[in-house]
Amino acid sequence: xxxxxxxxxxxxxxxxxxxxxxxxxxxxxxxxxxxxAASLLAVGIPVWLIQPFRHQTPRDLEVSYFLRRxxxxxxxxxxxxxxxxxxxLWRGSxxxxxxxxxxxxxxLSLFTAWFAHQNHFEWKFRPPGKTEFSTPAEASFLKDExxxxxxxxxxxxxxxxxxxxxxxxxxxxxxxxxxxxxTY
Length: 184
What we know:
With 184 residues, the chain is α+β, with helices and mostly antiparallel strands. The protein has 2 domains: 115 residues; 59 residues, no CATH class. Helix content is 59%, strand content 13%. Helix 1 runs parallel beside helix 3 and helix 2 packs antiparallel against helix 3. It is elongated. The relative contact order is 0.10.
């Protein structure tokens, strides 16, 4: 014959199962957050390793290029898993804070998937759209030790700060009536 439980035993078992469900939901919400963190690392490491005017080791470049090559596929897969977990957890997460966390994890995972398909290195080094030039007297932003790339055509001279050229890589200009592209 079955054992009859007292009211205290029944409520104790109910409390244990509720605590187990809550702990499971917390772990469940943690999974999309960890998937997003992995996506963020896959996209963020190359951005961190390859920066203008910062030394990169051959290993830094190797890691960055590997991640740039595989992150569009990998991060898209991680975003898919994140969305799967969010849909799975949505009904079991009645709390507004948990649902906001799930929405945030989804949105950020989709953003990293989009970002993984972008060439952010091109964004960093895009040539300036409209260049503005100064006379030597107006060039207060230059220091005496700054290097410049100079050109003289038809009696007209121009100098381009290496600092600006190194960052943008090129600038379009007209010197002495001749169109040119200065690059470094």
